[in-house]
Please model this.
Amino acid sequence: MTTAVGEDAQPVGEYAAAAAAAGMSPEEYEKLMNEPQMRQLMHHIQHGSESFKIERGGEGPAQPIQNIVVPHGASQEEIGAALQREMAKKKTNEARQEKAKAAEEERQKQERNRHSDAWSYEITGAGSAEINGVYSRQKDGAKRNGARVYQKGEYMFSREVIGGGAGFIVGKAPRAFYAYQTADTVAPETGWSVQEHGKAPAPTVLKLEPAEAVEQTKQRGNALFRAADYEGAAATYSAALDVAAACEGAHGLDEEVRAKLLANRAEAWLQLARWQQAEEDARAALEYDPCFVKAYVRVAKACGGLERWDDAMAALREALEVEPANKEVLAQLEELRIGARVRAGTDQTLTELAGLCARLGVLLRRKGSAAEVVALLKQVPTLLRAIRPRQDPAAPEGTMMYVEAPNHDAQVRAQQASSAPPSRRRAMTRRPSPPHYTPHYTPHYPPHHTALYTPCPHP
Model:
C-alpha cells in the first residue's frame, strides 16, 4: 500500500472532503474515523494489508460484517466510501433476510391453520375474570362460519359475521366481551379488542390442538401409572383415546399414537389382573401397528394370566419375527418354558432348578454381567413356588422334604436295592449324578418316595 494513514486527527479540510464523499457531516465522519474499529482498519491499511475484516459491536460478542478489499493507493475518501457501501450492502442483506424470515413464518402459520382444528381454547389474563378458562368443543362438533363453536358454561367462543366483517367473539349472547376481526378460521393468540361488556386488559387466547390434547392426557395417565394408580391411569388413557376418536383425521393423530395409548392401557389392565381387557387392548394396538413389540409382550402376559400358554408362546414368537434379539421377549419365552416344566411336575422342577444353579455357577465363574445374573435369579421364585417343602420326620430338625409328586425313579431304585445282595445293594444306592448335573450340585435321593431338598452350594 502506498497510502500513508496516521492515527492522528486529519485536517478539517480532508475531513470535509471525505465526509462529502461518504455522504456524512464532517463531525459524523470524524467520530467514525476515531472509533477503535476504524483505527484498526487504518492500521491494516497502513501496514500493507489489502483485505481486512471489520466487526460490529453492541450486545454480545462482536460480529464480522464484511471482508473489504482496498486497492493500492486508496485515499481516505475512497476508504470511507467503500466502508459506507459495505455497510449499506449489509443492511440491505439483513432487510432481505428479515423479509424472507417473515414470509416463511407466515407460510408456516398458514400451513398450521390449514391443518388446525383446535380441540379447545384457553383464555387467560382477561379483565373480565369470568371469561377466563378453557373453552371446549361443543359435543356435536358444530361449526359456525367456517370454525367450530367452543363453550365454557354459559359463555361462548365462536366465529361470527357482523355487518360484512368476520371475526371471533367471546361472550354471553347477546353480549360481546372481546373480539378479533380476521379472515382466518383460527383464533389469534393476542391483539384482541375490548368490547362493550368487557374490561381491560384484553385476553391471551391459547389454542390446544387435538394431538397436543392427546399427548397431555397421555402424560397425565403415565404419571398416575408411575404412582401405582392403575385404575386412574386406565381411565385417563381412555379419555385420551376418546379425544383421538373424536378428532379422527386430525393432524398429528396417526395410527402409532392410538397404538401406544391402547398398549399403555393394556399394561394398566395387566397390573390390575384384568387379563381379558389387557389382551383386547394389546391386540387392538397391533391392528394399528403390527410391528409394536411391546404389544406382543402384553398379549403374551394376558394370555398367561388366562392360562392360555400356547397363545402366549405364539405371541412371543411373532414378536421375535419383528425383533429377533429383543431381550424382554427372550426373557418372557424363558419364563414360559420354566412354567411349562413346573406344570409338568416336581421331578422336572427339580431338574430345572439344578440346571439353573449350574448355569448360575458358570456365569459367576466367568464373571457374567449383572443383567445376566438377575435374569437367572428371576426364574428361581417360579421354581420354588412349585415345590412345597415340609419337615422330614425321619431327619434332623430343619431337613425339608418335598410333598409334591413322588420321584418314581427313586422308588424303583429303592425297590431294586432292597431285593439285591448286600454288595450290589450298596453300589445301587450310590446313584450317580445325571449328565446335566455339575459337581457343584448333587441332589440326594433318600430311599423313600420323596426327593430330599439339598440347597445349591456356592460355586
The two ends are 87 Å apart (CA to CA).
